[in-house]
Design goal:
Helix content: 25-40%
Largest sheet: 8 strands, mixed
Number of helices: 5
Number of domains: 1
Order of helices and strands: HHEEHEEEEEEHEHE
Distance between the termini: 30 Å
Strand order of the largest sheet: 3-4-2-5-6-7-8-10
Mean pLDDT: 82
Low-confidence stretches: 19-29
Number of strands: 10
């Protein structure tokens, strides 16, 4: 019972954020696009259910420092994702990633890590991750592949699934 008001509050915050971000998107500058996509990554993480307890470890988003979303995601560091603060790092040896943000055309990660949410920014042909960020008619949308998420032991809230452009 106690979690129902929290989930309703979270859903309302998600909807308000999407409306505000859509209104803020009137400019087409690359930084606006990156900030909007970073907000989507953050909000998608909010509505993802990870396997097991991660303890007090931050929820870590991994992407290349050269990725267009790097600066915008770094501005979200420390924000809560559930009970965990958000961290943004470049992947490297020993880095435990919860979310991997890949560029379109990237290959599927060789190690299908349990609990790794793969989000592909503007997928081209081929691998699109569990979530694909796509621009359609000058709007940012996302597709969800539930089978890909299940391979990583992840699930998405029903509210997130309702907001997706396509769910497979």
């Amino acid at each position: 019972m106690h979690s129902e008001p929290n989930s309703i509050k979270a859903a309302l915050l998600w909807c308000v954020a999407l409306v505000l971000l859509t209104l803020a998107r009137s400019g087409s500058a690359q930084t606006d696009d990156a900030a909007l996509k970073a907000a989507y990554v953050y909000n998608i993480a909010q509505f993802t259910i990870w396997p097991g307890a991660a303890g007090a470890r931050p929820l870590t988003v991994c992407l290349s420092g050269a990725h267009a979303l790097w600066d915008s995601l770094r501005k979200l560091r420390g924000r809560p994702v559930g009970e965990r603060p958000l961290a943004v790092l470049e992947p490297g040896p020993g880095t435990q990633c919860d979310v991997a943000v890949l560029r379109g055309g990237a290959a599927r990660p060789t190690e299908a890590a349990s609990g790794l949410l793969v989000i592909v920014d503007e997928p081209k042909r081929g691998y699109a991750g569990a979530v694909a960020l796509v621009e359609e008619d000058q709007h940012l949308r996302f597709d969800i592949d539930t089978a890909e998420a299940a391979r990583a032991g992840l699930r998405f809230s029903s509210r997130l699934l309702q907001l997706a452009r396509n769910v497979r």
